[in-house]
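Input for the complex:
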Amino acid sequence: MAAPGALLDESFLRKLEVLSLATRRPVHGQLKGVHRSRRVGAGMVFTDFRPYASGDDIRNIDWGIYLRMDRLILKLFEEEADLPIYLFVDTSRSMDFGAPSKLDYARRIAAGLAYVALLNHDRVNLIAFADGVVQALPTRRGKNQAPQVFRFLEALRASGETSLHATLRRFFGSPRTRGLAVLISDFLDPQGIEPAFAVLRRFRHEVVVVHTLAPEEREPQLPEEVVLVDAEDGTTAELEITPSLLEAYRARFQQHVREIEAYCRKYGWAYLQASTAIAFEDLMLKMLRAEGWLR
Amino acid sequence: MSLLGLSAQAAAGAMLGVAALVLLLYLLKPASRRLVVPSMVIWRLVLRTRKPTPDRLRWWLSLLLALLIALSLTLALVRPQLAVYGGRAQRVVLVVDDSATLAAIASDGKTRFQHALERARELVQADAAGGFMIADTRRQIASPHFQSREAALSTLAQLKVAPGGKPQFPNVLRSGERDVRAVLITDGVAAIDAPAGVETRSVYQVADNVGITAFEVRALPRDLHRFQAYVEVLNASPGAKQVELQLTGAGAVPIKRVLQLAGGARAAEVLDVSGYAAGPIRASVDSAYDALPLDDVAFSYLPPSKPIRVVLVSAGNAALERSLRLLPRVQLGVIAPAKYAPRSGVDVWVFDRFAPRAAPSSAALLFRPPPTDWLPRAGGELRETNVAAWSSVHPVTDSVSLRDVLAERALYIREVLHAQVLASDPARRPLILASASGPRWVEVAFSLEDSNLQLQAGFPAFLSNTLNWMTGEPLALNAGLGLTELPVVHAKVLDLQGQPVRVRELPEATLVESLQPNFYTAIAPDRRVRVAVNLLDPAVTEINRTALAAAPPAQPSAGAAFLPPSSWLALLMLAAVLLLLEWWTFNRRLTI
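Predicted:
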């Protein structure tokens, strides 16, 4: 059993062992797995017929048709493949905010999803990013790789600014098997989300967006006169906080969240708000299952 | 209401200080807290759509409002006094008439002096001056100087009516001082000669008054044992008055007279007071609605009626004989030196260029006696000498000036012994001596023929003093109200009721202050002095003889008042309105 470290405790890991990641489209796995793939082969799910050709596995010849039509027809089955999962964890300084911090919450989500994937023999890729790929864990597969995954996540520290677009362009600039891209971030990217998400669309990955939020971001408690300091770039703004200004902020923040969600819905991506105020177990065992990501 | 009542300069200083303090507080405003947020992305999007008021403008607007509020409050508190006309601060000299007529009671029960003080206080409180000088016509305030409003009010509170003497406008105005406003508050009776440009405020009101303007007790020339009192009563009221005149003294019932006096009329009464025993005589008048009590009572002194038996021993000196005969109560006998023989029944011997071999058993006055054993040793003669110094405290020379006394020849007295030098020449050689050891004697070193002593105005007083001193007769002086200088030292002074009076000791006299008629007895170690202190001044009794119109109702000065008395309230209201404005602008983030 992999040592969960401080991220996930034993009992919670046991609860995760009965779950598996669900995909909405056939996967393009190269190895045998538990997910439906577009390839036909030795699977359990019938997909089609075709004429027998020399060299085909004679165990798949439909003998009933041969008796009725005197022709050798071969039954085709979907081959079950593994799922390439790309877990992107935002480690920019903006994630080091809140109690618990958004980064802590994000790596626990990543750890939970990675653990479920490893149990189901999916290929798990972990990428920590800020204004680019900060650190990446090469593909891991199998439950025995869970400790390495956890150690990788535990070692992450917040630093740098956020540039999702640069991260995705750089990461997917190398040939990657199409798979499930899970983005865990607060998406406070000065360049906006659209350029980054466009990269994902171009490579036609299935995308899951986990939007981590701290309650303090949604409802900031600020004195009347304050100098706000950007945690990422250190820029400041001297503000006199008024009720109307706070109201404007809340509205703009809500709009920011809605824009991300709307984008995701538009392109069939999954979207989940992960507020740090929500108990982590509830998020993993209830909300993700309710959304159909875990089953 | 005046809280501080500062001068314009002090108020300007206070306001500058407050403004500086407000500015300092604004400059010392604590810096805003720094808070780290995950990202400014959202905030930048928010701020891009808003148009905040420029911080600098808001800061200035806020500072302006704060300054206006603070200065309004300060102005309301300090009530600066600035001149309206000309825009420069004025100083006010207030001269209060505190002469005797100001003690007259007006129809409202207050004295004219109380009205004068009220006017003065109103001027001080309402006038917008840079300083106030309080002075008076009787010089109660020895050194008038400009002072603050509060100090001026305090000085006014110490003033009182000071009867006696001639009131004068004090010498407090300097020529060329254009920013000084001088106001004289008077009833106009004393006819004070105020300099040009001095405003006069009248506190005069018509009032009834009947007073004693003369009171004297005299011996009858033909009968020195009988005495008459001369009393003059003046009705200074506009209308007729019935006056009850009463004389009281020791040893007999009071003498009363009822007089009917028309307005402005006088009555002179001569009353026989021989029935009274020696001592003070009190005259009083009583009439309805009398406004000035000071002149309703007067005192005099009835001397003992016993005659003084004087024997002049002279070879012939008609002038001296005549002078002695003119003195009251003197029974004079004249003999030639050859007929001199010691005898009893003589109170005073007067030796003219003669001295008996032995001292007489009675007192003696000697003019250029020849050297003899019982007198100080003398020898030789002084030529062309004069009196250079004399004692003013000795009863013999009291009230007698010897300044111009010249002598062609005088006895050169070489030893003084136990005698006291009363007068001396420029070389400090004695010219007049007196001795109180044994029978009293006074020796004059020159004869009346060889000097001009007899021609001096004080010669009868010299003789009278000498006789009184020798016979032990007490002196009775007359004095006016106010400060009286008694020619005694280390004396205990009693009033008519025998109560001790507060006195001020001078090197050669004793000062007594009398604010109303009284009779004092000064008891010194060597003698007694009696003083009758009276008003006895027709100019004072005539309290309606004024050139001023009746006093108008009191009004605050309009000449230089910058802020009306209620302006502080308006300023407070302005400050309240500004506070509301500040609150409103702060809530709308127009100010910081």
